Hints:
Elements: H1 2-22, E1 24-32, E2 35-40, E3 45-46, E4 57-65, E5 73-80, E6 82-88, E7 93-95, E8 98-100, E9 105-111, E10 114-125, E11 128-147, E12 161-182, E13 187-198, E14 201-215, E15 220-233, E16 241-255
Amino acid sequence: xxxxxxxxxxxxxxxxxxxxxxxxxxxxxxMWKPAYSGxxxxxxxxxxxxxxxxxxxTFLQVALEHPIPLIPNIMVAHSKIxxxxxxxxxxNVEFGGETFIANQDISAxxxxxxxxxxxxxEILDNWVNLDLGLTARQYDGYFEAxxxxxxxDVVGAIPATSETLELSGVLPMVYxxxxxxxxxxxxxxxxxxxxxxxxxxxxxDVTAKIRWDxxxxxxxxxxxxxxAMTLDVQELDVLESDLDIKGPYLGLSLHL
Length: 256
């Protein structure tokens, strides 16, 4: 009876290990608190003038890995980034086809929401992990400026003015991830990011973080670090910008 019980336990353990080897699913959800600096719009208005709010941005990433050598692994990620602010500009500014008169409060909404589809290979997979691949990043964003009243400081009535500059399109990017596991501690150091310079546009998005597997039996971990984006787009769509978006990052990760 003991031998039978041992055989069953061994078979179950072997099956679980085999399933994990055949197919693995990693899911990470997190929040990012970015600050904004640089230039926005073709008018090259300083983002600091709008005082964009440092609201929390949400982040979700799911990766599916398998042991077939020639077929890449798949990862999908989505970041929802939205903020708003108000500026009182010292000179007339044109966004798109609309002119905004100086000394009026201009409200602005900025959305840089995007979705990534990544194909990558595991180059190293031990205490040092290295992944390399390619990403297609689909932006679904915009910059909206509006002046919805007549300024009492300007002679004559000034009509309400608004303009929306779209940021919609796909950027091809190089993907990389390096992870150092500290043996017998449950701690890891990770750097992960994308970058591109394409058709006059350049874009980087890098996260450096520390990971702690605090429930090793369930492969459940917490991550903390810093995420930094640079977005210099002139050709992708109507919205032209040269922005830096940086801030602390916190996430939870689960491996199945």
